[in-house]
UniProtKB/TrEMBL annotation:
Primary localisation category: membrane
UniProtKB keywords: Membrane, Transmembrane, Transmembrane helix
Taxonomic path: Eukaryota, Viridiplantae, Streptophyta, Embryophyta, Tracheophyta
Localisation per UniProt entry: Membrane
Protein name, per record: Protein EI24 homolog
Annotated InterPro entries: CysZ/EI24
Amino acid sequence: MPSSLAMHAKEAAILWLAGFKEACSLHRVVILCIRSRPLLIRTSQCFLLNGLIFLGSLFILKSVVIPILLWILPDQTEYFAAEHLYCHKAALTLYSFLRFILIELFYIFWFYPLYIFSFVLSTLWYNDIAKHAYEVLTGKRPSTTQASKENDLTGLQTTSNAFVPGGFDSVCIGIGEQVYSILLLTLFFIEVFATGFIPYFGKAINFLLLSWMYAYYCFEYKWNHSKVSLNRRLDFFESNWPFFAGFGSPCVLAIFFFSPLVGYGVMAILYPLFVLTAAGTHLEQVVDSVRRSFRGGGPKKLHVFYAANKIAMTIVQLLPEASKTS
């Protein structure tokens, strides 16, 4: 039993390293951007908005604005003349309050609107980046692709497309899957957020769940364009959970130790790069080539989305009852 457990742990570590290696294959980003000018423009715009403007604004606040405020509104008694020391406490309290108000106004009228603007615009740009990458890799637009001509995820696509009806039913199923996927990932995000408050082991669990979440988001663009059904995505993801934990780790490592605003800015810069590396990953081929070397068949399936899926299904089952009673 201990030897079997050690063997499975070793195989999980090998899959994790394979995912980590694929995520760090950033040379694919350069190749894809060279082959597609629209992709290069969109990626550059993400760097400009989130790196130069957003992170640059944070840098200016910390390095320029706050020091100037401290010079104009000092927080130490050494700036006061000796004859005015009797009122320095009241002055320092007033100065501290004014600095707080001015910095908060800076956040309210600049950073928070910029954050919302960056989040919305970046979300649209990420989809464009994934679409342009898909066009470069397949030579087709996503709407005209066929699973038989894909070089990657062939097993996933043929299985997912085998029982999908056409016409209006197919559109309804697609919309339903998208809505359920949004609900599922929202609940999973709440789960990730909640684990951060667990004492002692919370940070480690939060890191692992964040890695899975970012990895899923990175590959979701590719799966959407490849018409892979939600059930097949979740099954493949949970069957190869160490690979996706490794793939999401570099992005989480880059933001895990920053403040929320700085972490968002860094993530917004790096995320499109990992979306592109995910688009260029021959996912099923990589996983199969690693698993073929396993004597024990590889790690067992782990139900990563079990809790989120159960809650989502409960919410969906309650919807008809709510509509009837209303």
